[in-house]
Amino acid sequence: MPSYLPEPPFTHGRSIARVGLLLVNLGTPDAPDTPALRRYLAEFLGDPRVVEIPRFFWWLILHGVILRTRPAQSAKKYAAIWQSEGSPLRFHTAAQAAGLSARLEAAFPDNPPLVRYVMRYGQPSLGQGVTELKNAGCDRILLLPLYPQYAASTTASSQDALFSALARWRHAPAVRTVHHYHDDPGYISALKGRVEGFWATQGRPDVLVMSFHGVPQFTLHKGDPYYCECLKTGRLLAQALGLEPHQYRISFQSLFGRTEWVKPYTAPLVEQLARTGVRHVQVLCPGFPADCLETLEEIGMEVKATFLNHGGEVYHYIPALNDDPTWLDSLTRIALDNLGGWLPAPLPTAEEQAAQKNRALEQGAPQ
Question: Binding positions for Fe(2+) (predicted)?
Fold first, then answer.
């Protein structure tokens, strides 16, 4: 028989149902050191949504080779971007959750949705977030991923973790999940504002590179829409900025393993731009709403060095949206669009609460 977690206390006529919102990001290690990276990478790379290789053979590779060498290498990279507040991805995600919560509280002061941020890998976990929302009386939960473009390795994996967490509860809440918002007008407008604000202080580049996280090429052919959604985001942003085709490029970063990934790859692209006479490049990462290792270290340091070492002269990384107010306004609207029918949630009157309690007591309820 399954062993369920204990349900939170309930009192008829006094317990009020709430809506919960889980803002989920990919994840981060707890510290920039080898043990923390080993734990994080074991969870991340052990997900069959992330690495689609037969489990037995991949387990041998992961535990026999990768987790013996890669954690120390990754720890050095994380140490280069770690800040006094901790992991950039974690504190930026926390700030986004706080901004979203404040906006929802202003819109629904009597019974606002309860917002928690969680990580697909690492802490705070999705299971922890579900437990907090359940114990707070939430009977409806919206999963809002910080992945604008859908991918099986991110969006679907987070859905897997959510439903796995729900399986531990006898009284599972109603659930909705946001699929994607790669072409949402508010998201595109926030990106446009971020770029134009950067241009106002740093000038316009010869070429704007929009770099997205890469995925294996075979995922596209098997039906994953991620690559197409990235291209659409890039096209819509270029149109919003009034860019001609020669003024921007779309590329993909963070390659892993030996399989072919969707192209063009970001580092070789900026190297080619430098070699062909492009002097000023700026790179934006639209698929990362919060700054993290892939933006701050890979794009901000490694790709920058590649460009400058091959003849480029001026290179800038345009920061992620993070807690930009325009972005948080758009994120709030995306949440509200997906909470339709669940909000507003009016509080019952004192008379309604008393009547509910009396009916329950008449039927034998203890409280």
Answer: 213, 294
